[in-house]
Amino acid sequence: MTWSPLEALQIFLVCYLLPLASLTWSLPPIVTNLASNYPTHALLVAFFLPMITYIVTSPNSLLRMAVIPVVATIIISYLQTADSYISNKSFLAMSSGPTTLLLFSSIDYLVLQKLHFTTDKVERTIEAGTQPVVISEKSNVAPPAHRGVIDTTSLKWAWRVIFSYRAIGSPRAVKNMPKWSYSDPNYAPSRPLFLIKRGAAVVGAFLVLDLLNSQPPPDLSHFTAAKSGQFSGFIGQSVEDIIARMITTVIFWFSLRMTIALIYNSWSLLPVALRIDSPEDWPPYFGSVFSSYSIRTFWSVYWQQSLRNMLVGNAAFWTHGILRQKKGTLVARYLNVTFPFLLSGILHTVLDVCGGVPLMEARTLVFFVLQAFGIMVEDSVEAAYFWLFSKKNGEKTEYPKLLFWHKLLKNAGKSRSQLKKLAISWVVDTQQDIRLFLEVVVISHFESWSALNGTLVIDLSHINSVNVSQDKTKATVGGGIRLGALYMALNNYGLSFHGGICPTVGLGGYVGVGGYNMQGRKLGMAVNDVTSLEIVLATGQVATASATENPDLYWAARGGGYYGIITSITINTQVFPRSAMVSIQFPNASTRYEVARKYIDWAPRQVKEFSSQINMYSDNTNLVGWYLGGTEDQLNSILATSGLLNVSGAEVNIQKNCSTLNSRNFWNDYSVVTTCGDDQAAEEIFASYFNVAPQAFAPIQPVFEFNELTVDSSGSQASPWPRVSIIDKNYIIQKDKQWSDETLHGLIDRIGGFSVEEFFWAELTAFNISSDVTTNSSAFAWEKDAYALFRAEVSHGENATQHAYNQAFFDEFDSFLLPRMGTASYAGYTDAAIKSNPYTAYYGSNVCSLVEVKKRYDPLNFFRNPFSIPPTVPEGVTC
User: Fold this and answer.
1) Which range is the signal sequence, renumbered to this chain (predicted)?
2) Is there a contact between 591 and 648 (Cβ–Cβ < 8 Å)?
């Protein structure tokens, strides 16, 4: 989030300086009396005041900021007087922690993020800086109005904001949330099993802690003041001292972890038992111990993450609001590391003091600040390691992937189980006898034709191996692999593949429709780099399709639909050069026509290395572009000819020297990934988007289950994409049927007719593919003729009335556009309600040739869906 200097000053004075000053002032008697005589009431006021404020105030209300000093005063008064009526130091520390944390979370959620509950009963933020948001800048759909009603739903939401520190189940959920099962990230236990396991964990932890507590205290002679220098380390210590310190340290951290887990597990039992919450609301508190292979991953992946959201949010304000550091700089990066640890140190110092440790003897602040310093040292060592062991390969510098000790620790926790090979050919042969037809599910990313009546569904998502050739020019991969997993695997070899940007798209289905992508203007459709396929035919036989074996099947299966089950694909791999990226925001809806006109006249005519897209919404437009191998100057040069920089309100962001991972991160979500940072950071971000796991299509019990493993199971796992219901249309703009001003005006007027609540989105992607690669070697019909691709979608609608309205809009949309631009369409965005002939729309003049291939390899039409090529000439087509 960006704060103006005045806004940052206001927040600093009211939310930080005023509470800090109250430590030295005499607190109002009414507050001290309340805290001293009615501590329970004081705590209730401190917690419920922010709760009510979340609900009743609008996001920009000044009351939100005014609440902070009030809450701070109550909290400070409570901390100053609590020891007079809470004699147990452990209980005192336990109550002081959440109370102090409340101040940080209130500042973050009330003032910095402006968290609120809307009329559609969904949590929203105005802007969120470093925090995840419900509506991203890319979708840019304005949220409904603030709700402002106190009822059961809003109170429950506000309660979770206050007490669900990890924001489970919300858009603010912390990253790297521990899983119930790392082999199956979607697994959660049933309610009875959850209660049994958590109950056993509580009893076990209690017994272990009781056993530890009953042991005699350590020999204090090993811990004298003379031996406790902060940086003395092992210098001057005896072996006995060192062993005693190490054992005590291990026991301390173990008992601390057990205590925290005991409290968390105990709290989880009642709400789950009473069915207030589900087991999914209470995932494990700690990650895998094998994730702690560095200081950074220890705190971000393994250790409990309760403090992360509010500390990171406050730290971002101090870095970017107070110190005015630009995002993406080295200074900002490490300030955003240091401040959370500094704030955590302050919080834990309060706990120590409340627990009876004298302030001058509390070392927690130094300890936590040293963690930030340790991360900086660790990053410096990594950078030096990369520099020392990098290899120059022509113009390209090859860097080692991980420090060797990181490799050792990461791999120590991996279980190496092999997936059983599916007997697909036997299944196909058997199904012929029982007269079902077959639907193959690679990932089911788009149109829901994956569960038609009278079909047997075969889920290929676990046929996802990746084998790179010795010379690294080719890779043979499983037909069910997702693009995200493919990119992750190839990146381990410094390689890539010119595929699309959506990580959950399955390669087998992607090949069948041609595969449009972000490097396509230079390299062509993705199928141009498919050199062979292994396909199970309708007879149950396994055939190889390549330029020399079954060349007609090889031609048809790449862009012409599907003619069997693709179990293996051999692809050419690439090493992409570093690139320049651009995003331009056009926040004014009135400029939509100007932007679209200038873009469509300019973008497809630029150098083939430059691929781009504009996204149009009901109230704004934005552009994203990728100059493959281009420099900042080259990108600026072509942008200068576009006229887009002169559009009123244009906000331009250009990034240079971007690695392939950085470039894909930027395109995938340029509202969040606004810079091309260092390559190591890019890998972490890339994993959070693209490190996808196979998802079971339709688990039926009882049945054997696969482990849903990612390619890099020790790194961040990308969250599964949510299932959404949309109405969708797409049109290929052909070179000889480009949009006239009248067509474009009509299109823009129709887009403007949607309100932002209806989640309208249209994307316009430049094609005009290089003639160097348009050889017609595949069955994708529009490679030579496509000038651009236009796709529009809107939500299906929450009720019949809204659905009917949205469907009628697209019906009229079709009626307007089809006569003006023709029927060409991209099969990757199948339209169940297409108005034109689907066969000629998707496959053009290739339909008759594809029918012949179908007749030869699948004469009984065993593999089919409603718009797949049949073995006979379809209605409306003349051959």
Assistant:
1) none
2) yes
